[in-house]
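Objective 1.3, modelling of assemblies. Example input:
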Amino acid sequence: MKRLLTVLLTILMVCTVFSCKKAEKTGQITIHFVTWKPNVPEVWDRIFRIFAEEHPEIKVVTEIGPHSSTAFHDMLTQKLKNHSSDVDVFLMDVVWPSEFASAGWAMPLDGLFTKEEQKKYLPPVIDANQYRGKIYGLPLFIDSGMLYYRKDLLDKYGFKPPQTWQELVKQAEFIMKKEKQKGNLIYGYSGQFKQYEGLVCDMMEFILSNNGWILNPETSEPGIQLKPAVEAVRFVRDRIIGNIAPQGVLTYQEPESLDLFVQGKAVFHRNWPYAWRISNDPERSRIAGKVAVTRIPHFPGGRSFSTLGGWQVGISAFSKHKREAWEFARFLSSERVQKLIALMAGKAPTRESLYHDSDVISANPQFSQMKDVFLRAYPRPKTPLYPSVSNVLQRYFSTALSRRDSDIQSLAEDAAKEIKSILALSNR
Amino acid sequence: MSQRRREILFGVFLLLPCFLFVTAFAFYPIARSFYMSLHRIVLTMPALGKPYVGLDNFKGLLLDRVAHRAIINTLLFVLISTFFEILLGLVIALVINKRFPARGLIRASVLVPWAIPTVVSSQMWRFIFNDKYGLVNFLLYGSHVSSYRAWLAEPFYAFLAIVTADVWKTSSFAALIILAGLQLIPEELYAQASVDGATALKRFWLITFPIIRPAILIALLFRTMDAFRVFDLVFVMTQGGPADSTNVLQFYGYKKIFAEGLMGYGSSISVLVFVISFVVSLWYLKMLGKGVFQGVMG
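Predicted structure (tokens):
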């Protein structure tokens, strides 16, 4: 027994000595990077490898959070609330900078991220990273809603890509019926309708494309209880869910909805730009080569709107290694890393110059077509209380869509009242 | 110092570590929640400060229709899930109390669902109820599904799904406690009753049930307390949706505190859960005190 103990102790001591030595020898500074579970992990492995080669003095430890933006937000803010020093660099969804800035979690980058450098990015993403005149994040990639469709099926039945939602529903119903007669079960539409942040993004596109709004950009008054917004929600409930989209979309986030599409079980699919590569990858998709992309439809009299999404790199105000954190953040947002992400993961860059890069465009031909959509992509309401506003919206949309007999008008009025009382807090 | 005083001092000394532990990990957090529930604390807007607002948070809770819905959901969840858990637990306990081959193995395996971490079993149930590849749809509609049901997309079924997952997981815990009660019953009582000509049903109502009643009550107490705190099932399976049909109090409080940063308001929800569980447990303890041990103590 005694001998065993001695052996164990010796092993322990040797290990301790060795691990000390390693750290001493290299004198590395460790920074912690909080990110989500990526769709294409290979590209991230490569990014980390390049950084490690070029910056042997900085060791990046990654912590991977959940894929869902809402769940990732809860995990990250929990750390920031505790002023945790083991977060140095983190990814921020496009709606978070106001909140993180107001709460004092994200470090203002004005001294480092110069105005001149900012001019190299697309204007909407720089705007999204500003709060009260200061900038809090480095744009990494841009997202905006796009409509994917089965080119082969539309061609087969002589349809052009739909301009309006009504056309989309008609085409979908027709194709579903015809294909069913041949024994091919296919749905018309798949999107994101689970009670989470993505639901707000999807519904915003319907509402705005009917000349409605969520919060009036000038007066900050909610507009979800007004006629255009209510009509749009009713259209989604009556004509889309359970009709051309399976009832199950009410439980779908991006991966589940994309799954239905790449299995060849949906004619139309709303998603972010990353879905292009996956749906055209023969290893992951049954419809590779049969996919095309166009802008989100609109209602008659309205115009197409895409929700602005995308991710930023932020630096924690509580980081003990801000210089190294900046080094890493700047690297992530650099032209070559963005190019790598565009080539390998199909994410749309935030730097203007990459839209003229022939490699990027030949790998992602949809980008040149989508650039004006990105430039016009519409931001979600900008307020530090956005999480509360979003929860009210998620609840309202989910209730309105999943209950066939719901009184949409009165639900919308209740939600608008709640949003008003939340926003009243920030005017104190 | 008299013998008695010394004994009391020694007793206090022995209690101290436990007392300190409970103070640090139970009393302090509870007191802190009460304190925070009386303030308005918005984490994302530090400029507002942390003003004392009296009972404003609780007044807000009274008017909050989402909170009403969450209270109703929680109460329904507690009632339905504990009822089925105790019922199934009783059945399981009666079965594994009988003598049959490999009884030890069966008894141990009955506990497996309870031993699996809730997050894991919730994920499993989420898959089982999945609309595209879920087991439930496969069993009901076969592999060439044309008309499947998206269980977690419909408010009513989503709620049933979390109840089912909870019943599956914790019935065996109720069974374990009831089994302990069953083993107190001397075999002679049954032998005597048989001689007297009592039927199986009569034997159950006149012998088994009175003796295991305290065990059932204890199982009920544990299960009720636990069901009030349901969180992980909802977090994994539905995130409170669809249409808030599975939004329970603890999840709502979590959302307020962790997602929205409303520490004050969220704390008032925690206080509400605490008060409800406290009242319920007092009531149970009173029931337990009312001579329900008679059966055992004779």
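Chain A touches chain B at residues 70, 73-74, 77-78, 81, 99, 102-104, 185, 194-196, 246-251, 256, 259-260, 384-385, 387-388, 391, 394-395, 398-399, 401-403, 406, 414, 425-426, 428 (CB under 8 Å).
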